[in-house]
Amino acid sequence: MSSAMILCVSGISLIIVVFGIYAIIQKMKFALQNRADDMVNKIRKENQTQIEHLEKKLDKFYISCKLETLCFIGIGGGGCNIVEDISQIDKWHKFIHINSDLQALQLKTSKDKILLGYDKKEGLGCGGVAECGAQLINSSSKKQLFKSIKSFEKVYVIATLGGGVGSGATSEIVEYLNSLDKEVYVFVTMPFSFEGKTRKSVAQSALGSIQNVSSNVTIMNNDDLIKKNAEEELGTRENFKLSSQIIYKQIVTSFRC
């Protein structure tokens, strides 16, 4: 056999060996990939099982503590902010946001959002005018609210008074909830002293309207809430969040173990 022939055969043999090694490497690669995928899926399944187990334990804890799933309704910008803060504390409850400001409403994480008076205000809000808030409650918004709260016997309404929707719409909404034979508890905050006499006057008028339709009204002064938070040396938003926690604790105290 000539040297050229030998070189040719050797070259072919080398190519076959290389392809063989490549095939083995690819096979090992696929095997390792499949094994890795199996391990990842196993870990995911185990984690999911642990999560489901934890959720079941939490559900049992809630039942053993006789905790109710509560329904919180935030009305207006301030009320919606408080309800949003509460939803970050305890996700197990129902949270409903009612406002005429579309942009503010879109920032809330709850699925239950009721935009008031889009046909009149086009989602731009009431600009702090209480009379505007009162005029935006109609059959459509009531129908939306009914769908959201129909399975609840108790409803917790939260509003900050002195502005537009919170001051104007709260009494209308509470009166509607009363007509549905719901057990309604209202929590309202009064303006800071530095907000001026006008907002204070609006808040006092709104409070009177709310008390005319509900005997279960808890009144909290923003000045007092901030005094409780003064030692924390927090910023404005953090102060409001801490105030939301105080409100929430007042609401759920009777439901804890």
UniProtKB/TrEMBL annotation:
Signal peptide: none annotated. Residues 69-257 form the Tubulin/FtsZ GTPase domain. InterPro entries: FtsZ/CetZ, Tubulin/FtsZ_GTPase_sf, Tubulin_FtsZ_GTPase. The chain crosses the membrane at residues 6-25. SMART domains: Tubulin. GO terms for molecular function: GTP binding; GTPase activity. The keyword Cell wall biogenesis/degradation does not apply. Gene3D superfamilies: Tubulin/FtsZ, GTPase domain. One of its GO terms (cellular component) is cytoplasm. Pfam families: Tubulin. SUPFAM superfamilies: Tubulin nucleotide-binding domain-like (SSF52490). GO terms for biological process: cell division. Keywords: GTP-binding, Membrane, Nucleotide-binding, Transmembrane, Transmembrane helix. This is Tubulin/FtsZ GTPase domain-containing protein.
